[in-house]
Write a structure and sequence with these properties.
single chain; 264 residues; 3 helices; 9% helix; globular; disordered N terminus
Length: 264
């Protein structure tokens, strides 16, 4: 049923369905030019390769648009070979939302399509935080974490992280992170898939993330708190869902993200 909803062929239907019950979250799709503007006010549309992106609209229906007020810190819209992405320079490019209220949930599903350019350690793809990860109810996804792995950090009243699968420079990847602060142990709290496969996992930090729900924080794309640990490379898609995705939703969403990323 991939790409179909209500009998109508729609390549975005499986993503739209994730938010059909009013779930909190966000969906950023650089292949949809109608969602991007060169300025943060949303007055000048992105129409061509190489233009800056000061605002990308959230397609989830929740209105969690991501922007960058400083012109020099805006990623570029790029397209080639039928693919479309945001190009982050690894120096100061970042986007951020206003604060998003995730306090009703202790679970999160995060999907990404990315292709990193450099091996700079602990580079952020997407993060929910109050600019530092010490605050309760935060998460971060990395490409890479450490020297060359895809990984994630989760914090309830404590913090823990895991990573797995080396990610190579210049190679596209589809990532899935499932977070559950209520999990009994770290292996229950963070689930990771890379290109549709569960990798060998390495763990660190406390034995679990403690307790509690997620917080009301901005969401940052391409940087830690908007001003450090910058991602250097391409982001083809980010989808954040404020609940645990089902097994079928995970595989369908990975298929959709891969269609935008060309990873496998």
């Amino acid at each position: 049923n991939y790409g179909k909803l209500g009998g109508t062929a729609d390549p975005d239907a499986v993503i739209e369905a994730l938010f059909a019950s009013g779930e909190q979250g966000a969906w950023y799709d650089p292949s949809d030019l109608s969602t991007m503007f060169q300025d943060s006010a949303g007055t000048t549309p992105v129409t061509a390769d190489g233009q800056p992106v000061g605002l990308i609209l959230d397609k989830s229906g929740r209105g969690n648009h991501a922007s960058q007020a400083t012109a020099a810190k805006r990623p570029l819209y790029k397209t080639s070979g039928g693919l479309h992405w945001l190009q982050f320079d690894g120096v100061d490019d970042a986007l951020a939302t206003a604060s998003i209220d995730f306090t009703s949930t202790d679970k999160m599903s995060v999907f990404s399509g990315s292709n990193r350019t450099s091996s700079t350690g602990d580079s952020i793809l997407v993060e929910l935080s109050s600019t530092v990860l010490a605050a309760p109810g935060a998460f971060a996804t990395y490409s890479p974490i450490g020297s060359n792995d895809m990984g994630a950090y989760l914090r309830g009243t404590d913090g823990t992280f895991l990573y797995g699968t080396p990610v190579n420079n210049g190679t596209p990847y589809v990532g899935y992170l499932g977070f559950d602060i209520a999990g009994a142990a770290r292996a229950d709290e963070i689930k990771i898939r890379v290109n549709g496969v569960i990798p060998t996992i390495t763990t660190g930090g406390n034995a679990n993330a403690g307790t509690g729900n997620f917080g009301t924080y901005p969401m940052y794309i391409g940087a830690r708190g908007g001003d450090s640990k910058y991602f250097n490379g391409k982001i083809y898609s980010i989808i954040v869902l404020g609940r645990t995705a089902t097994t079928q939703e995970i595989t369908d969403t990975e298929t959709w993200v891969n269609s935008k990323t060309g990873a496998y």
